[in-house]
Amino acid sequence: MQGFKKYWAEVSVFLLEIGLLALGSAPPELVGHGISPNTLFAWQIGVFIIYLTAKGVTFERATSEAIEAIKTTLSDTTGTEEEVKQELESLRPHVNSIRTLNQWEFYERFGQRIERATDAVDISHLDRYPPDENIAKTKYFEDFVTRVKRNPHVNFRRLDRLVPEKKEWIEKLLTELTGCTNFSLRVIVDQGPDKLPHISVQLVDRSEVYLVAVAAHRSPHGPRDMLIDSSEAYLIWHDYFERVLWDRAKPLMYQGKVVADDLQNLIDQEGRE
Question: Which range marks the domain in which residue 128 is found?
Answer without folding.
Answer: 95-272
